[in-house]
Specification:
Elements (H helix, E strand, L loop, with lengths): L1 H17 L5 H22 L5
């Protein structure tokens, strides 16, 4: 499942850059901020994970 999601994500990035004309640095910035936000949400909503 992880490999499939990585391939799908790579395809999504290619579509953003080639079809919609998004700058490559903007894609990396959005992905980085999204992953950081996901980590924060997971940390704040997670129950006691000992």
């Amino acid at each position: 499942m992880m490999a499939g999601s990585l391939i799908a994500f790579a395809g999504f990035c290619i579509v953003l850059v080639k079809v919609f004309g998004v700058e490559p640095y903007a894609v990396l910035l959005v992905v980085g901020v999204g992953l950081f936000g996901l980590g924060v949400v997971r940390r704040l909503t997670g129950a006691n994970r000992d």
